[in-house]
Amino acid sequence: MSTPELGPIAVATAGEALIDLIEDAEGRLRPCAGGAVYNLTRALGLQGVGTLYLNPLSRDRFGRSLATGLAQAGVALARPEPVHQPTSLAVVGLDAQGKASYSFYRDGVADRAVDAAGMTAACAAVPTLRLVVTGCLALVPEDSAQLLPWLQAQRAAGRLVVVDANLRPAVVPDMAAYQASVMAALQTAHVIKVSDDDLVTLGLDGADALNSARELLQRTDAPWLALTLGAQGAMLLHRDGRAWHASETSPVPVADTVGAGDCFLAGLLVALLRRIALLGAAQAHSLPLDEEDVRHLLAHAVASASLCVMETGCVPPDAARVAARLSEAPPRVLAR
Which residues pair with 191 in a beta bridge? Predict the structure, then answer.
């Protein structure tokens, strides 16, 4: 695999990098590089976005493998020197539809050895930085004292903030504290991403996912929310009530769903960054996307996710594969 050609660093990511131990048909565990933010980071790099990963990696065998994956995607490390803490692990089970469930081993691990001041300083050193992203395991209550000040500093510095809720109930003993921690992070976001399962875990189990997503959006200051619906596609919602739904026009062969949401978000952000480049600084935070913009963002995001689910484990597509998919089988995008 050749390293993609990247422009100046435009995105900084903060969150877990771990090894997924995925159970195969014989019950054996196969190690794969993973973690939602790690997957997202690689996916951004492979689609040509200059990306900075803020968390440290371990000096152990798994950590070296994770570092190699980021290097192959052209991702820069804010902390290039490995640390002595071990790499996080997740045991992944798959159901008959390929949907993943997780058990985590994350005490005293490398990717949690961060502090708000260090992440803020790393971002301040990159004058071309436009957007920061976090989510998933970074949102646990025990880490909020480091994450929230960093997110607030990025918003104050004029950068767009994207938060992927991506809740993992198995990782926390106190669900109420977890929900509060996730909601605190979402309050800093310009763009929120959630799944239909996330909405239920947050306690928003209304009549349907769209109404629950609209309720969540109104509880925050974010102008936009992306909602993933598994095999039913995805939606993009504006806080003024507008919504669009995207889906594939024919069934996609699914190997498993590991990393699908991460690749969806990467595809969305790749398209969003292209739009941001056309906006003036005064407009960037309100993200005044028109109908054509929304259709482009959703199509790019769904195509990226579909290419991921065709592979075993998270194998993010590069820019050429996404472009080919959009040309050959563009998703359907309809206003709701």
Answer: 162, 224
| Of the candidates 9, 46, 314, the residue with the CA atom closest to the CA atom of residue 133 | 9
Lowest average pLDDT, out of 17-31, 151-165, 278-292, goes to 278-292
* Residue 333 CB partners (closer than 8 Å, separation 6+): 244, 245, 246, 294, 295, 298, 299
SS3 79: coil
Helices of type H across the chain: 36-46, 61-72, 116-124, 144-156, 175-186, 196-201, 209-218, 260-276, 281-284, 291-309, 319-328
Question: 3-state DSSP call for residue 304?
Answer: helix
Mean pLDDT lowest for which of 88-102, 127-141, 153-167? 88-102
Decide the pairing of beta strands 160-164 and 191-195. Answer: parallel
Residue ranges of domains in the chain: 9-335
The answer to whether 191 and 220 are in contact (CB under 8 A) is no
Q: Residue 232: is its pLDDT beyond 60?
A: yes
Q: What percent of the chain has pLDDT over 90?
A: 81
Both structure tokens of 62: 């798994």
How far is 175 from 267, CA to CA, in rounded Å?
Answer: 30
Q: How far apart are CA 44 and CA 285, in angstroms?
A: 21
- pLDDT at residue 1 tops 60: no
pLDDT-derived band at 301 (thresholds 50, 70, 90) equals very high
pTM of the model: 0.94
Distances (CA, A) of 13 to 43, 151, 240: 12, 11, 28
Task: Return all residues near 312 (Cβ < 8 A) that are at least 6 apart.
Answer: 22, 255, 256, 258
CATH class (in words) of the domain with range 9-335? alpha beta
Determine how many CB atoms are found less than 10 A away from the CB of residue 285: 16
